[in-house]
Design goal:
Mean pLDDT of chain B: 92
Radius of gyration of chain B: 16 Å
Low-confidence stretches of chain A: 1-47, 67-154, 223-336, 563-575, 581-591, 600-657, 690-699
Distance between the termini of chain B: 37 Å
Helix content of chain A: 40-55%
Shape of chain B: globular
Oligomer: heterodimer
Helix content of chain B: 10-25%
Number of strands of chain B: 13
Structural class of chain A: mainly alpha
Largest sheet of chain B: 6 strands, mixed
Mean pLDDT of chain A: 61
Strand content of chain A: under 5%
Number of strands of chain A: 8
Low-confidence stretches of chain B: none
Strand content of chain B: 25-35%
Shape of chain A: elongated
Distance between the termini of chain A: 39 Å
Strand order of the largest sheet of chain B: 4-3-5-2-1-6
Structural class of chain B: alpha+beta
Order of helices and strands of chain B: EEEEEHHEEEEEEEHHE
Radius of gyration of chain A: 32 Å
Number of helices of chain A: 29
Chain lengths: ~750, ~180
């Protein structure tokens, strides 16, 4: 049995196997990753062999070779420089910076004072013709600056600017913004390519490659974006005036191509990355020659970041831009993003995850390269990726969408949007990865036991007496060394079960997410630190102790109706009320099973005569068992209708012990409270909602939902949630009502 | 003061292990029976004398059969032990495997079970409060009440698991290592 079903796993294994024997045929060579255009690559002069291989894998052999040729120390390409100074030195030494502005034209852009000479990198035209190089150069803001300083690349400047803004801001962008920004790059590239004066440009191939790369990445983001969950409209329209700007620039450009090629060619080295998130509303761009001062804005039209938008609800590509600088919104003067190969390797893994690859599968090894274990890879990702990126990586690793899921892409987006919040904490995410946690989406037309992960349960029964074949979802079962969480397509998307499982979706209320509930269980059991788990234990025990001592305690699912101060012992009154509401309905009519009839009669007698409480489930009687016909409604004494109770879907409890779900077990306490924190605890509490003894209480059977309720009822628990889940709500969880309404609206 | 005279919980609460792995938690009070599976929308069934939560999907059916067939809580615990499962005191919600599971015999009589690492001493009938008798080096349950004082005394004299094992052997007990998945 396969423990996990990665996308195209068999194909990948086959490929990995075949290439293992032919290292030279590595498919990674010279294949840009989706995030190549984000650039940010720089190379230290002394590259260890293993890091070199990572680099080669990331950007290709030829590009790596060029980088190495052009770099030493901190990236100087000149022969005079000893290369001993650091990027920090460069950043803080004014003389170095001046040198940069004055003499930064010798290929690699060394900023050391000792570099008096201005050297031209050989084969620059050829270098610029390389699509990969152009992309990388254009990815760096420093290149834009250098371009301005030289004034040679004014025609391509709008493209540079757009790419630089994308690189600088992308970690704060929504996916929609990313797509829009990429579309803008495509528009700019088209403008360049369509310009009559550029028909013979040496840069056409590079610009075309950039355009293709941007289009490819648009596709990636359109696939990944959990669009349905985005609650904030952040779509930046591509400002058409940019085209005009481009034309204006074109009209004033008189720089011959040959001069344009004399430009810094190793901007990968010592990239100075603009991390500003400043919003500008400029609709036209001044001619380059009028804008010679170094532009450090790195921003672009309509590239503003909406602070209300979750940065974790999107799949954010990895860049090497300073995360701290971005998050702080500050604009470093000359931040030197010295990129280390570990970061590059982590980026590569991340990008492969985004593509749907299994990063733990065997890959061809280079000479001297050691195979990385799962732990090695996870260590690398945890160390090198930002918290947001690591969350995304963990989500992509842990989430398993079988190909048989009917609306696979929608389910994937919805699940990822949930996981972006659930796995926000790096420690929690890593703990789950270490436990081999897998969240499997069960197709809405298949039994859970149809999936290989759960097939061993076929024909067996659950602890609560159900057939595993009919169960829809589970929270953290350990099978064959994995911790499996099963969530359902129908609950994730708010639809109904179909085919073999039609009718087994079990009518969870709209807005109540079994998906987040089940994942919360696995976080509780396997993701929390022991300290946090102990805190939750203590909180739960403290509440239980209060109840034991006679205090009335409110839980996130309401009250327990079997505890001192709450218990009503009003079974007789309840029976009277029931009989008044539906006179003559308290019969055994319609009960086919003789034992049931006897039990019900006994039950009714007990209620009437003793008015006491049972301690087991025999007090529970389905409405249909007491002769209530479908469609009848229960009315209270005053004639008002008791909402929501109909003949066949609810039970009525006369007396007896009942605890609400959140109170019933330490694990449910955490999972239900977490659901309320996310905003996914909508609907009716199943244990106490029909508790007749509590009739008349306004809040009977109502789940509490939302952060304010968690703050009110579970303030200490909310402190833990705030820390590990952040502040975002999960919107559109199990949107059954919305889906139903949409269907009705479309006649579907 | 003998162990029988120490404070005890109002409601007993135990973990049930199969070798190293937690398969069930059970309390000596009427309540719901929870599966690893998602909850039934109508609520979990109530049991007349126990509330419990299963952690091993593959064992759920057998555990359900045992709990519904048991005459009372103590009978249920006895059935679990008879089916090669072992009982430990519940004092936190950790579900991680407990390593070095051992069964403890006096002659040919099974008298207890122990695991490596922090945990609480208990007997089946008399369970201390959550924070009492918690030891860093071992979690030990005395199945035979008459052995409680001796076993607790040995536990209190030691600070390492190996030291505990040595003293137990010197006191005439036999330790049988349980295979992790046994």
């Amino acid at each position: 049995m396969s423990d996990r079903v990665p996308h195209n796993s068999q194909a990948k294994k086959t490929q990995a196997h075949s290439t293992l024997n032919s290292p030279q045929q590595s498919t990674n060579i010279d294949v840009p990753t989706p995030f190549n255009i984000l650039g940010g690559m720089s190379v230290n002069g002394n590259i260890p062999a293993d890091k070199l291989l990572l680099l080669q894998r990331s950007i290709g052999n030829s590009a790596t070779k060029r980088l190495i040729q052009r770099s030493h120390g901190q990236g100087c390409g000149c022969s005079t420089c000893s290369g001993g100074h650091t990027s920090a030195e460069t950043q803080t030494n004014p003389s170095v910076q001046r040198q940069t502005a004055d003499t930064d034209s010798h290929g690699t852009g060394c900023r050391c004072p000792s570099c008096a000479s201005v050297q031209r990198t050989p084969n620059l035209i050829q270098t610029f013709r390389s699509p990969l190089t152009v992309q990388r150069l254009m990815a760096a803001d420093v290149f834009k600056k250098k371009t301005k300083a030289l004034g040679f690349r004014n025609l391509i400047k709008p493209i540079d600017k757009a790419v630089a803004a994308y690189a600088a801001n992308n970690s704060k962008m929504s996916s929609e913004q990313k797509v829009a920004a990429l579309q803008k790059i495509v528009v700019l590239c088209d403008s360049y390519l369509n310009a009559p004066s550029r028909k013979k440009s040496d840069r056409r191939s590079g610009v075309e490659a950039l355009k293709n790369e941007a289009e490819s990445e648009i596709t990636q983001w359109q696939v990944i974006t959990p669009e349905e969950t985005q609650s904030v409209d952040t779509t930046p329209e591509v400002n058409q005036s940019v085209d005009t700007t481009l034309e204006e620039n074109q009209s004033i450009d008189t720089t011959p191509e040959v001069n344009q090629s004399i430009e810094p060619s190793t901007t990968e080295v010592n990239q100075s990355v603009d991390t500003s998130t400043t919003t500008t509303t400029t609709t036209t761009t001044a001619p380059v020659e009028e804008n010679q001062s170094v532009d450090t804005s790195g921003s672009d039209e309509n590239m503003s970041i909406d602070p209300t938008l979750s940065d974790t609800q999107q799949m954010t590509p990895v860049t090497n831009v300073s995360e701290t600088a971005i998050e702080s919104g500050t604009q470093p003067k000359t931040p030197e993003a010295t990129v280390d190969p570990e970061k590059t390797a982590a980026t590569d893994y991340f990008n492969r995850l985004v593509k749907g690859e299994d990063i733990f599968a065997a890959t061809p090894l280079k000479e001297g390269e050691k195979a990385k274990s799962r732990k090695d890879i996870l260590d690398l990702l945890q160390a090198q990726l930002t918290a947001t990126e690591f969350t995304q990586a963990a989500s992509l690793i842990i989430l398993n969408i079988p190909e048989s899921v009917v609306e696979g892409e929608k389910a994937r987006k919805a699940a990822l949007s949930h996981l972006a919040i659930l796995f926000k904490d790096k420690t929690v995410a890593r703990n789950l990865l270490d436990k081999n946690a897998v969240v499997v989406v069960v197709p809405k037309n298949k039994k859970m036991t149809d999936l290989p992960q759960f097939s061993s349960l076929a024909g067996k029964k659950t602890f609560d007496g159900r057939d595993w074949d009919k169960v829809r979802g589970s929270g953290g079962m350990e099978i064959n060394g994995h911790i499996y969480v099963a969530v359902t397509e129908e609950n994730t998307l708010g639809t109904d079960g179909e085919g073999d499982v039609s009718g087994t979706q079990l009518c969870y209320d709209s807005g109540y997410s079994t998906t987040t509930h089940e994942i919360a269980h696995v976080i509780d059991m396997h993701g929390l630190t022991p300290e946090d788990r102990k805190k939750v234990d203590d909180l739960y025990k403290a509440k239980k102790d209060k109840q034991t001592n006679g205090e009335v305690v409110e839980w996130i699912d309401g009250f327990d109706y079997d505890k001192p101060g709450v218990k009503k012992d009003k079974a007789q009154e309840a029976f009277d009320e029931w009989n008044l509401a539906l006179p003559g309905k308290l019969t055994t009519a319609g009960m086919a099973d003789e034992e049931d009839r006897k039990q019900t009669i006994a039950w009714a007698k007990y209620l009437i005569v003793d008015g006491g409480a049972y301690a087991d489930n025999t007090y529970t009687v389905w409405l249909e068992h007491v002769g209530m016909v479908d469609g009848d409604k229960v009315k209270k004494k005053d004639g008002t209708q008791l909402g929501g109770i109909n003949a066949t879907s609810k039970k009525v409890v006369f007396g007896g012990k009942q605890t609400c779900y959140a109170s019933s077990h330490r694990l449910e306490y955490f999972a239900q409270s977490a659901n309320a924190f996310f905003g996914t605890n909508m609907g009716t509490e199943p244990y106490t909602n029909t508790l007749w003894t509590a009739a008349g209480e306004a809040d009977k059977g109502t789940r509490r939902n939302g952060k304010s309720e968690v703050t009110r009822i579970e303030p200490e628990l909310k402190g833990i949630f705030d820390r590990i889940f952040g502040s975002q709500d999960i919107n559109d969880a199990n949107p059954r009502d919305k889906v139903k309404k949409d269907k009705e609206g479309t006649g579907g | 003061m003998s162990y029988a005279e120490t404070p005890q919980r109002e409601i007993r609460h135990f973990n049930v292990y199969k070798g190293e792995h937690l398969v069930l938690t059970v309390e000596d009070t009427p309540g719901p029976l929870f599966s690893v599976a998602g909850p039934p929308p109508g609520g979990a069934p109530h049991h007349p004398f126990a509330s419990a939560r299963a952690y091993d999907a593959l064992m759920e059916e057998d555990l359900a059969t045992q709990i519904w067939n048991a005459a009372n809580f103590d009978d249920f615990l006895a059935q679990l032990i008879a089916s090669s499962l072992n009982i430990a005191s519940w004092n936190d919600s950790a579900v991680a495997p407990r390593t070095q599971p051992h069964r403890l015999f006096r002659g040919d009589k099974l008298v207890g079970a122990l695991w490596l690492g922090a945990g609480q001493f208990t007997t089946l009938a008399h369970q201390p409060p959550y924070d009492a008798l918690v030891f860093d080096h071992a979690m030990l349950t005395a199945y035979a009440a008459q052995e409680a004082d001796t076993l607790l005394g040995i536990l209190q004299k030691t600070s390492t698991f190996s030291g505990l094992g040595q003293l137990l052997r010197e006191a005439g007990y036999t330790l049988l290592h349980i295979e992790p998945r046994a």
